[in-house]
Design a protein that fits this description.
This protein is mainly β. The chain has a single domain, classed as 7 Propeller (Methylamine Dehydrogenase, Chain H). Helix content is 2%, strand content 44%. The protein contains one helix and 28 strands. The longest helix is centred in the first third of the chain and has 8 residues. The two termini are 27 Å apart. The N terminus is likely disordered.
Length: 377
Amino acid sequence: MSVALLVGLVACGQDSIASLPEGTLFTSVTVGAFHSCALDQNSIAYCWGSNTSGQLGIESERSRTPVPTPVAGGPVFRALDAGRAHTCGVTLLDEIWCWGANGDGQLGDGTHESRDAPVELQSGGRFALVSAGVGHTCALDYQGRASCWGRNNRGQLGTGTTVSQVRPTGVVGDQRFSSISSGALHTCAVSVGAVAYCWGDNEAGQLGTGAPSGHSRPVPLDAAQHTFRSVTAGFSHTCGLTRVGEALCWGSDDRGELGNGETGDRRTPSPVSGGHFFSEVVTGTSPWSCGILRAGEVHCWGTNGSGIFGAERLVALEPLPATAKTGGEWQGLAVGDGHLCAVEDDGIAYCWGSGGSGQLGDGASSDSDVPVPVQGL
């Protein structure tokens, strides 16, 4: 890491908003409930949208900003993940730094104090992945061992107890995972053997075990016939992508968020309607889910609070086009409370949906039912 790059990161002062440099290209994007963040080609982190808890990490008292703003101080990152009102990143040195809301200890710095600039995780380990949820955060090290910290009232930390933690605590069991996803009150992960495990709250069946009780330690899904590529934990539902590209969802289904053509909670994985094959499937922090079809289009299902299915439709019970391709191929997809963002293969980030907090990053604070490019002042 160069001193010049560090200086560039610190350059955003208390009352200023730095403009996105011309020619900036993004490699990934992540979204929280009402904010968004992205990494550029130089591993510099930018955030925009709501900043009520410091989740933008811009060291400012501004309640929101509608344009990408460099994250203050700290190191450069190779991966970011936005929770509901906090954000975490893995640095080029395999450290984890977090910022934003910390009332449940989800920043992992040993306190309950919210931060408007990155603080380093209180752990001596080296990490490969991080996943920020609503009130808790989880990470994987290079051996696939999982650690979690923050709120634990439903066992979502996987420690075998319901005691909350302000520092990383190991998930019990001898499983080794290749991916992990933190939701609202539950967590899911995929083992190196492609078996999906979940733990935490199970009131709506979001653990996928077929049983009514929750678990404070990892339990395998009732889906022995499926091998999973990824599993993503939402607010009170979960979706998974099998190795062959089939989308399955389970848990709460009040608003069609399971995408199976009907409503009604499911305690075991249920295929998403339409016979589609996906390259990626993600859940939001509200009752909806989205995926990228292998053909390149983004489809979503569930609540339509952001209007992406058209003004006359309240919910989509099965996948509907959220937009056609804009010309390139999507590199990734992230879904929040009412907005979604993705990066195309040309490095341009787009967001659409709810924009009242500036979370679309286009300089405005209004909704858009079509993708708008993220841009500077």
